[in-house]
Automatic annotation (TrEMBL):
PANTHER family hit by this protein: ALPHA-AMYLASE FAMILY MEMBER, NEUTRAL AND BASIC AMINO ACID TRANSPORT PROTEIN RBAT
Domain Glycosyl hydrolase family 13 catalytic residues, every copy: 19-427
Keywords tagged on the record: Hydrolase
Family affiliation: Belongs to the glycosyl hydrolase 13 family.
Gene Ontology terms, MF aspect: hydrolase activity
Protein name: Glycoside hydrolase family 13 protein
Organism placement in taxonomy: Bacteria, Bacillati, Actinomycetota, Actinomycetes, Kitasatosporales
Stored Pfam families: Alpha-amylase (PF00128)
Organism: Streptomyces hyaluromycini
InterPro entries assigned to the protein according to its UniProt record, in alphabetical order: GH, GH13_cat_dom, O16G_dom_2
Length: 548
């Protein structure tokens, strides 16, 4: 059995990490917004669930222009969410329960309310204060055009003009000006931030937009029209490491510097990169002398198809092994449609169009989506490496796709001219009880409206209920701790549409992704994603764990 205790510096290699989106987890003071005391009060849920760590999305001072990823102070707590004392109390309680604490760090940009950016605006063109960010004069006869054609991930130009005529770079929302990582003061400040949270007992960091810190700022700035603005498609059209602002080779110097800080603690602090880059490039971020792990988004994006899943699993394990890291697996997070809905959408569905239709075109079969989600979960938890679980997936929550546009908070909605609905549907506050003004989220309402059908998904409704998704997760995580050993798998022969692999000591996982029942291989049934029939078959959209 793998040692996941605090004594083991490699606890993270096969851990299960639970992502908490603080504003939507639990509200202790009844103002409708989740907070740190709310998290502390619900940590027993994570202890009973059986995860190894919680990853806390941003809880820093923020005006919420991008759900907390617009950070005004990287070394404090948003007063609406609590205080540093509350953070310390939460960390202490997590550690008492045997849970590690991982926090989000947002190094690519700050909020426009950050003291540095306010100083930059007051100081004017050519000032030292502006050099911490990326300011440039505009093009055109009067500087009226952006300095380049670089595009924001949220839509539109990545440049915003200020009253004195200069433009600043924001790869995300205008309220999120990009930092200039060629500036030593920026680098030094983040070293201080890493030490600040590590000294407070944080066990690791999730690095937001890890592939964007270094930009090619040589004049004249290169336009990107010839190879596309964003995402992997753009990266595939240029030589590796040479895109003007995504995944440039120079970023790895920064993470090698960070690793020295991480390794100065006992046990060393862990880190995982959010890097939307091709598979081979992702391995660079996961090297032992850099961050150590990187999110595997290929797996999240893989369709429910046995061949595609096997290819991605095999490739991901090989990539992680080559980097000296362990693989990572994730099915949902705060940026994507929840997998209980996503996995049942017909292949090729435009997810944004589906969200704009309120989840009605095409209509999804909720029970079918949950069945696939449960099967996908047991498959993921059987794989070697770390599994990242997003809050609410242990309840089987589908996407709240029918949120009225009048309540949307995601900046994507406004910045794209109401053409992309955004990510609010996966961020609706959790249901803890089957009734009450916010289903137990808090004494008042919730900052995003919760649908009535949340009642049947509540923790209270599922705890102790045989066959519930919550109990499936609890059983799976308890069993996983006993079975886990080694970081390899061996593929076994299987019918078309079936994934079958063995782990150490004869433990096996079989997933039927096809449309027809198949013979169940021999062995003791340890756990199944749904009750199995008595005819010796494995039904479609079902995963089973087998003993020797």
């Amino acid at each position: 059995m793998v040692d996941l205790s605090s004594r083991n510096p490699d606890w993270w290699r096969q851990a299960v990490i639970y992502q908490v989106y603080p504003r939507s987890f639990a509200d202790a003071d009844g103002d409708g917004l989740g907070d740190l005391k709310g998290i502390t009060g619900r940590l027993s849920h994570l202890g009973a669930l059986g995860v190894d760590a919680l990853w806390l999305s941003p809880f820093y001072p923020s005006e919420l222009a991008d759900g907390g990823y617009d950070v005004a102070d990287h070394r404090d707590v948003d007063p609406r969410l609590g205080t540093l004392d509350d953070f310390d109390a939460m960390t202490a309680e997590a550690h008492r329960l045997g849970l590690k604490v991982i926090v989000d760090i947002v190094p690519n940009h700050t909020s426009h309310l950050h003291p540095w950016f306010r100083e930059a605006l007051l100081s004017g063109p050519g000032s030292a204060a502006r050099d911490r960010y990326v300011f440039r004069p505009g093009r055109g006869a009067h500087g009226e055009l952006p300095p380049s054609d670089w595009q924001s991930v949220f839509g539109g130009s990545a440049w915003r003009r200020v009253p004195d005529g200069e433009w600043y770079l924001h790869l995300f929302a205008p309220e999120q000006p990009d930092l200039n990582w060629a500036h030593e003061e920026v680098r030094a400040d983040f070293r201080t931030t890493l030490r600040f949270w590590s000294d407070r007992g944080v066990d690791g960091f999730r690095v937001d937009v890890a592939h964007a810190l270094v930009k090619d700022l040589a004049e004249p700035l290169r336009d990107i029209a010839e190879f596309g603005p964003t995402g992997e498609e753009a990266l595939e059209r240029v030589a590796p490491g040479t895109h003007p602002y995504w995944d440039r080779d120079g970023v790895h110097e920064i993470y090698r510097d960070w690793r020295k800080i991480f390794d100065g603690y006992s046990p060393p602090r862990t880190a995982v990169a959010e890097a939307w880059v091709p598979d081979a490039r992702r391995a660079l971020y996961a090297r032992p002398d850099e961050l150590g792990q990187a999110f595997n988004f290929e797996y999240l994006q893989t369709p429910w198809d046995a061949g595609a899943l096997r290819e991605v699993i095999t490739g991901s394990l090989a990539t992680a092994r080559a980097a000296g890291a362990s693989a990572t697996w994730v099915l949902s997070n705060h940026d994507v449609v929840r997998h209980a809905s996503r996995l049942t959408l017909p292949p090729g569905t435009d997810e944004n169009a589906w969200l704009l239709s309120g989840g009605r075109t095409p209509r999804v079969d909720v029970s079918h989506g949950l069945r696939r989600a449960r099967a996908a979960t047991l498959l993921m938890l059987a794989l070697p490496g770390s599994s990242y679980v997003y809050q609410g997936e242990e309840l089987g929550l589908p996407e709240a796709a029918d949120l009225p546009v009048t309540v949307l908070r995601d900046p994507i909605w406004e910045q794209t001219g109401h053409t992309r609905k955004g990510r609010d549907g996966c961020r609706v506050p959790l249901p803890w009880t089957a009734d009450g003004p916010s289903y137990g989220f808090g004494a008042g309402g919730a900052w995003l409206p919760q649908p009535e059908w949340f009642a049947s998904y509540a923790v209270e409704a599922q705890a102790g209920a045989a066959g519930s998704t919550l109990e499936l997760y609890r059983t799976a995580l308890r069993l996983r701790r006993k079975l886990l050993d080694g970081e390899t798998l061996t593929w076994a022969e299987a019918p078309a549409g079936v994934l079958h692999f063995a782990r150490t000591e004869g433990w096996r996982c079989v997933t039927n992704v096809s449309d027809a029942a198949v013979p169940l291989p021999p062995g003791e049934v340890l756990l199944a994603s749904v009750p199995l029939p008595h005819d010796g078959t494995l039904p479609p959209d079902t995963t089973v764990w087998l003993g020797a």
